[in-house]
């Protein structure tokens, strides 16, 4: 449970967000989030943590047992470590033709059972480790994406096909590292 505020040394502080370390490590064994309704900055829906207006998905609980999840249409950004090491997801539905434009660094990363993910045409910014170590078999990167971050699509042992857009200008290292089934890159 995340309260609206905390007190320390006689002062009260509003909780406005979470550090990267907290998102990656401290919430590692979380099954669901709840947020005090008085919070002006955060909210939770279905156990998933968002900013107040649900334009940013902050953290999907790593211990949530659902095998499929649909990101709400209001989400513009999937934050750093939002889906880091989520153990049960096999299907992730990203909203198509809506607001989603950005998946930050390691936003969808180490989801080792994730086999089905649609990559919407609205995405423009894909951070490092995008879909790293997932079970996807193909990936079509949307037009408008100019680069992929380090480790994007790496260690995807079932990946057989990747299609890059005409807008693609380059990459950092290791985007397709250790993809032994890969037979086609367009």
Proportion in β-strands: 25-35%
Distance between the termini: 46 Å
Overall body shape: elongated
The helix content, as a percent range, equals under 10%
Total strands: the figure is 18
Largest sheet: 6 strands, mixed
Order of helices and strands: EEHEEEEEEEEEEEEEEEE
**Order of strands side by side in the largest beta sheet?**
3-4-5-7-10-13
Global Rg: 17 Å
Low-pLDDT runs of 5+ residues are: none
Helix segment tally: 1
Q: Average pLDDT, to the nearest integer?
A: 93
| Content-based structural category | mainly beta
Description of the structure:
The protein is mostly beta strands and 186 residues long. 4% of the residues lie in helices and 27% in strands. The chain contains one helix and 18 strands. The protein has one helix spanning 20-26; strands at residues 5-8, 11-14, 42-45, 48-51, 56-59, 68-70, 77-78, 83-84, 91-93, 102-103, 108-109, 116-117, 125-126, 138-140, 147-148, 161-163, 170-171, 184-185. A hairpin with a 4-residue loop joins strand 4 and strand 5 (56-59). The radius of gyration is 17 Å and the shape is elongated. The mean pLDDT is 93.
């Amino acid at each position: 449970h995340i309260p609206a505020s905390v007190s320390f040394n006689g002062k009260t502080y509003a909780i406005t967000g979470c550090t990267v370390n907290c998102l990656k490590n401290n919430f590692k064994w979380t099954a669901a989030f709840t947020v005090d309704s008085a919070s002006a900055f955060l909210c939770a829906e279905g156990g998933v943590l968002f900013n107040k207006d649900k334009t940013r998905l902050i953290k999907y609980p790593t211990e949530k047992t659902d095998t499929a999840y649909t990101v709400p249409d209001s989400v513009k950004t999937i934050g750093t470590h939002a889906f880091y090491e989520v153990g049960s997801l096999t299907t992730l539905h990203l909203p198509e033709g809506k607001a989603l434009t950005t998946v930050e660094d390691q936003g969808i990363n180490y989801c080792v059972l994730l086999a089905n993910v649609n990559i919407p045409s609205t995405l423009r910014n894909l951070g490092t480790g995008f879909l790293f170590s997932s079970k996807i078999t193909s990936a079509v990167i949307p037009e408008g994406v100019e680069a992929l971050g380090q480790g994007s699509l790496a260690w995807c042992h079932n990946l057989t096909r990747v299609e890059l857009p005409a807008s693609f200008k380059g990459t950092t290292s290791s985007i397709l590292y250790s993809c032994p089934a890969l037979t086609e890159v367009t």
